[in-house]
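C-alpha cells please, single chain.
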Amino acid sequence: MAGSPDSKDAGGCRDPMVRFHSYLHGGTSSLLSTLPTLIVFPVYKTVFRQQIHNTPVQQAVGQLLKEGPVKLYRGVAPPLLMRTLNGTLLFGLQDTLLCQLSLSSQNVLFTSALPALAGFGAGMVEAVVFTPFERVQNVLQNGQNDRHLPTLKSVLVRLKAQRPASGFYRALLPITARNALGSSLYFGLKGPMCAVVEAQGRSPVVSSFISGTLTSMAISLTLYPLSVLVANMQAQVGGEVKGVTACWRILWESRQRSVALLYRGGSLVILRSCITWGIATAIYDRQQKRSG
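Here you go.
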C-alpha cells in the first residue's frame, strides 16, 4: 500500500517514473474526489458562515437565500483548484520524502514511523504553498466583503498591497500546525487501518475507502478548532492585525467558552471530509497498485 515503507525498494525510490506516478495519482484521485464539492458547496458555505458568525444553521441558510443564487457559488474556484493541486503535492511529496527517509533508516522501529514523519514534512510544505489559496477562498466566502471586494481580481489586488503576514499569508502558523499534524496522522494511520479492515475480508478498494474515511474522521474531530480559528483570522481584510493567541482568545470568548459552540457546523465539515478523503484514498491506492 502506498505510504508503507515496505512497499518501496531502493530501486523504486531512485526511479523518477515511480515518483512521477505518485504525483500524478495524487492529483487524479484528489480531482475525482473533489467533483462532489460542486454539489455540496452550498453546504460548505453554510458551515463557513456558522464558523465566522456563530449563527444557527437556519440563520446561515437564510443569509445565503437572501444573497441569491448568483453569489451562492462565489468562492468555489479556489477550493477546486487547491484540492487538485493539494493532492498532487501532498501524495507525491510524501512518497518522495518517504523513499529518501527509507534509504537512510536502518532502525526497524523507526521505519514504522516513517510514513507519518514524511507526511509531517509534506504537510509543512503544503501549508506554505496553499495558504494564499485558503486566504483568498475565505475572503470571497465572507458575505461582508461583497461590497468593497466584489471580484476575485479585487481581492488579489487588495491582498497583494499588504504585507505577506497580513495579506496572502495570514494565519500561516495555525495552518502549518493543522496541515502538518493532519498529514502526519493520515499517512501514519491509513496503512495500518487499511490492513486491519482488509483482514476482516474486505476488498482492497473497500478497505482503502474505509481507512481513508475513519482516518479523516479522527483528524477532523481533533483539528476542527484550528480550521475555525483559520477561517476567522482570514475572513477579514484590513483593520487591526492580531496574533494567533489574541485571535484564539477572541474566538473562545465569542463562543461563550463552549466547546459545543466551537464545533458548530463541524458535523457537516467532518462528513464531507470523510467522503472526499475516503474516495481519494481508494482511488490513489488503486492507481498505485496498478502501476506496480
